[in-house]
Design goal:
Layout lengths: L4 E4 L3 H8 L4 E4 L5 H6 L7 E4 L8 E3 L5 E4 L4 H6 L1 H6 L1 H8 L4 H6 L2 H5 L50 H8 L3 E5 L5 E5 H4 L18 E7 L6 E7 L10 E10 L2 E10 L9 H7 L6 H12 L11 H25 L1
Parallel strand pairs: 1-3, 2-3
Antiparallel strand pairs: 4-5, 5-8, 6-7, 6-8, 9-10, 10-11
Helix pairs in contact: 5-8, 10-11, 11-12
Length: 333
């Protein structure tokens, strides 16, 4: 490991000022950053420890939403009674990620900013535009089983690996930040991540030194919700495909349909055209199939990951059947 300076920040403002320096990084739970440092993929000169800042509260907002501090651990967020009751797909997504030990350390802010799991990104001898801009992409012609089928560019097809971010995308979360100059802003999660384009090393719209202080959820959706994750083993594995679904029923028709996807996109994926196809209609397999076709019409496999196209279709159909079967039970009760 290369030498670096370690400083514990006393306040969010101080953390932002310290991290504005080039090659400074915040460290929260450290479950991703430390692995990257051991492999010398991340080589910061300065580590700003934010883990003791007062950013670990989960609070109700005046409009019945939820404000989740950036340092709330994945374990605490999944177990929060309000989250389990009103935003259950978020709790399910968190519990589907990593392991109990990791969830006890991993934080809300760090989870959103975890780096991809593309094998070539973690292999210093491989060509990788995300790790070393302009070097090429060994995944294109290589082992790309875990890579993206949507949102890729000729420079990169890496998947964003977070389960929590997929749930938050479906729930219309906003990221609250504090900049190095003291300015604050709220960024809808839909505008937070960048597609890889020509420079996949830049993954979000955050500026250097900009600290995530919280994630804000709007009032509860109120419908049936699920998070379905397909993976190689039942725990401790990243998604091949995941679907976060929330649907309300009014007079037998689907309303306020929200669908977000993990494991298939270069960022947590949402395509509102797909939701609109379902909106205001009675649930049926024919309609679900039409929605899946629309979602996947621009999907592109790269060989090893071609299987994700039919797998996504089946996972979406299963998630929609699960949520709408719940309303059939409700209607017949
Ligand atoms: C074996 C293993 C299996 C895993 N499986 C899954 C899985 O199935 N699903 C899943 O979703 N995740 C999985 N993870 C990833 C895990 O969830 C992340 O490593 C974790 O959420 C990162 O949070 P952290 O607090 O440890 O971040 P850190 O490692 O501390 O930081 C990650 C990045 O975020 C930045 N950062 C952290 N906090 C802030 C902040 N408040 N503001 C600005 N920048 C910040 C850091 O500078 C760093 O760049 C797995 C990890 C491992 C090691
Ligand atoms: S897909 Fe992206 S992360 Fe993977 S090797 Fe190519 S450039 Fe690197």
């Amino acid at each position: 490991m290369r030498p670096f300076e370690y400083t514990r920040a006393a306040s969010p403002g101080e953390a932002g000022q310290m991290a504005a320096a080039p090659d400074a990084r915040f460290i929260a739970g450290g479950t991703n950053l430390l692995d990257l440092m051991k492999l010398q993929i991340e080589t910061p000169d300065a580590l700003i420890d934010i883990s003791r800042l007062d950013l670990a509260a989960i609070e109700r907002t005046d409009d019945r939403g939820l404000r989740i501090g950036a340092l709330v651990t994945n374990a605490d967020l999944a177990a929060d009674p309000d989250v389990r009751r009103h935003w259950p797909l978020l709790s399910r997504a968190l519990l589907a990620g990593a392991s109990g030990q990791l969830r006890n350390k991993a934080t809300t802010g760090g989870n959103l900013l975890q780096r991809t799991r593309c094998g070539y990104f973690y292999e210093p001898s491989a060509r990788c535009n995300k790790r070393m801009p302009g070097s090429g992409c060994d995944a294109m012609e290589g082992i790309n089983r875990m890579n993206a089928i949507l949102g890729g560019s000729s420079a990169c097809i890496a998947v964003h690996p977070s389960d929590m971010a997929v749930a938050m995308r479906a729930l219309d979360a906003e990221v609250e930040t504090l900049s190095a100059d003291g300015a604050t802003r709220r960024i809808p999660l839909g505008d937070f991540y960048r597609l890889p384009g020509e420079d996949p090393s830049v993954e979000t719209v955050l500026a250097p030194g900009e600290l995530i202080v919280a994630v804000v959820l709007p009032p509860p959706h109120g419908g049936w919700q699920t998070y379905r994750k397909v993976r190689d083993r039942a725990s401790y594995a990243f998604a091949l495909v995941s679907v976060a679904a929330a649907v309300r029923l009014e007079d037998g028709l689907m309303r306020d349909v929200r669908l977000a996807f993990g494991g298939i996109g270069t960022m947590p994926w949402r395509d509102q055209r797909v939701e609109l196809v379902l909106e205001g209609k009675a649930p049926s397999d024919k309609l679900f199939d039409e929605a899946a076709r629309l979602l996947l019409q621009e999907a592109r496999g790269h060989g090893h990951n071609d299987f994700k196209i039919p797998l996504t279709r089946r996972t979406l159909m299963a998630a929609l059947r699960e949520t709408t079967a719940s309303f059939e039970e409700e209607t017949s009760a």
